[in-house]
Amino acid sequence: MNDRDVEDVQSLRAQFRAFLDSAPKPPGLRNYGPTPTADDVAPGRAWHRYLADNGYTCLHWPREFGGAAASVAYQAAFAEECARAGVPRQLNITGPDLVGPVLIKFGSPEQKDRFLGGIRIGDDVWTQLFSEPGAGSDLASLRTRAEHTATGWRIDGQKVWSSAAASADYGLLLARTGPDKHRGLSMFVVPMDTPGVTVRPLTQMDGESKFNEVFFDSAELSDDALIGEVGQGWTLAMVTLGRERLTLGSQAVAMFQLHERMVDAARDHGLLDPVLSRSMTRLWSRMWLLRYTWQRAIDSGDLTSSAFSVLKLMTSETDQHLGDMATEVLGTDACVDPADDELVHHMLVGRAQTILGGTSEIQRNILGERVLGLPKEPR
Ligand SMILES: Cc1cc2nc3c(=O)[nH]c(=O)nc-3n(C[C@H](O)[C@H](O)[C@H](O)COP(=O)(O)OP(=O)(O)OC[C@H]3O[C@@H](n4cnc5c(N)ncnc54)[C@H](O)[C@@H]3O)c2cc1C
Q1: Per-residue confidence at 3, pLDDT binned at 50, 70, 90?
Q2: Alpha-carbon distance 31 to 122, whole Å?
Q3: CB within 6 Å of ligand 1 — which residues?
């Protein structure tokens, strides 16, 4: 990135901040993260629509599909400013960040016409139907079947951890169409009101319900539900990964706000002795180092860089460390309803960070095998 680009990002950042500060916020809007609960959908949809009307959604999409063709650095600056303003940057992550790029690259002209507009303006909530009870880290071992019929496709099986499925209009489904582990997978669009599709919400330990189980009992999809070619599902699934990493970068900003809140809580509890102060300063320094390292990786513009595995690992573990330290500071005050205390809520939600988007163990495997060249683990 040259000096001109840095200047541009700085002025854009100021523009984002001014826009977000003066934007009218729909009643009930909160920064719910990448996934809305059922109660978040109405304010999230109205907010997304306002962002879309002002050209602030789907920043990474090409202009011909209503995007801004923005650089990675610009997208990261907008995500950071949204985190700072305490608002979501879009209705949910799945439609704009995961489904949009897949449809733009591999969808038929009819699929692009039918689905991209609804994603861009926030009319449609999408859910990602990949993980199964027996297939998470080893996603390609999934067993949900798609059988070709005279009229289209028949789906049988089960998915789990499907974020926002209970509120979703459509799902992006990865299903088995053949025996080969990777080449036997294909990708489909599922209207979530299809007969034979049942969604069962799961409640997390923070009391919110974002995850779901999704069951397919002979659910019939039309022929045009297939995205790309039969057997191309793994290639398409890989396109959806990587985009999630950008949102992790903006998480570093939210961490600073929580750190401040934790220092205040320690002061209120009369705990700010030299030992705790030193631990808090160390954590704060680590957060700054992470933030600068994210910035460098983002400025390089290479989303496939293995540096992102280090960053994913370090960001999620630092985030958990912050939650653990906050629990120590709060003591028995940590036993309140998470809805009443942002720190307690963050500590509980933080457990998910080392799992989503690839677990810490998997990141360490990637680093060991692909970056350090260590022997591959037995498979
Ligand atoms: C907040 C959140 C949102 C999510 N949203 C979605 C969604 O919308 N749609 C969707 O499809 N999925 C979603 N997921 C699921 C997520 O992709 C999986 O949880 C993740 O891939 C891990 O899979 P798993 O839970 O089956 O764990 P497993 O793969 O069963 O792993 C269990 C444990 O074994 C370890 N392990 C596994 N393999 C290895 C190995 N080879 N070497 C060393 N250790 C190993 C793991 O690190 C982990 O600690 C979400 C998860 C979270 C936490």
Answers
A1: very low
A2: 16
A3: 128, 130-131, 136-137, 161-163, 352, 355-356, 359, 361-362, 365
